[in-house]
Amino acid sequence: MLQETIARVRAEIEAADLSTAEQLDQFRIAYTGRKGQLADLFDQLKTVEPADRRAVGQELNQLKQLAQARFDERQQQLEAATSNAPADPTFDYTLPPVPQALGTRHPLSLVREEIVRILARIGFNVAEGPEIEDDWHNFTALNFPENHPARDMQDTFFVKNVAAGPQDAGLGPKAPASYLLRTHTSPVQVRVMQAQKPPIRSIMPGRVYRNEAISARAHMMFHQVEALFIDENVSFADLKQTVYYFVQELFGDDVQVRFRPSFFPFTEPSAEIDITCLICKGKGCNICKGTGWVEIGGAGMVDPAVLEQSGIDPERYSGYAWGMGIERITMLKYQIKDLRLFTENDLRFLRQFESLL
Ligand code: PHE
Hints:
The protein is of the alpha+beta class. The chain folds into two domains: 2-83, no CATH class; 108-129 and 183-356, Bira Bifunctional Protein, Domain 2 (BirA Bifunctional Protein, domain 2, 2-Layer Sandwich). The chain is built from twelve helices and ten strands. The protein has helices at residues 2-15, 21-32, 37-44, 50-84, 107-120, 135-138, 186-195, 236-251, 304-309, 326-334, 341-344, 347-350, and strands spanning 125-126, 132-134, 158-159, 179-181, 200-209, 221-231, 257-264, 267-276, 293-302, 318-325. Helix 1 (2-15) packs parallel to helix 4 and helix 2 packs antiparallel against helix 4. It is elongated and about 110 Å long. Bound molecules: phenylalanine. Phenylalanine binds next to strand 9 and strand 10.
């Protein structure tokens, strides 16, 4: 009995018309599905004489494989056909494509990202802070004494009548009355030190503002990256080695670095970092003013008073900080002789960076 049914079902399966997706679905329900005829036949296997059960079982298995194979093959064909079908049959798919007008990344963004990548490789993470900063973070916590001429080193834009806003969070003990556009990224150092415990290894890229006349070398708005490393036993040698590594990764092995003694209220000792001028290559130009060297940033060991202001024990920890201008570095890397190009949005300039995307 059961064998006869198997033979009939086999004939049906072999002959089934699977032209359409709907027929294929019917086929699945009728035969291979959980409530299909095959499942039913397997259930009936227990009614077969024990002596024949093995042979009938094998026959059923073969039938099941046949049904599944027919189903799979047809399903693949139908899927391939639908995915290749043109969505719009009236559209001429042999037309050449319309070129897509892609924008380019700004050179300053490209260089900032490269700086982040280079320093991320040696363990620095990225921290950010507000551009409207309070006087305490921008100056006082960084050891600029009140009413001290050191504050004039950075021609500050003060902000009038700023209502105390969310950027007040984390204000230092001497909450200030005045706000300003941050003149450097160093206040982010203070914020990071207030918020985290050593070891700290962060870089802080961002926009800064100074009341300066706009020229080929200076702007009232530009970008800096600060690097801060605080741990036990950090020394000036660590600072120098990191700067050497950084400069060589960014500019190549031929570039030389020198440290010149300098002064910053928040570092002691302090230095300015110069590299050999890549624009004039020794011939003298308006960027290096004929010296062959060009300054790329300031650096030093974080002054213990700054550590203490930010809640870090200066007896136990030491650290270095260094800050540099992204515009200056981009100018050196890509031989750009006028800083104003960065903000003029001249497409002839910006498109030159297309290939660097
Ligand atoms: N903040 C300094 C400036 O803008 C640069 C600097 C950063 C110096 C970190 C020392 C350490 O001039």
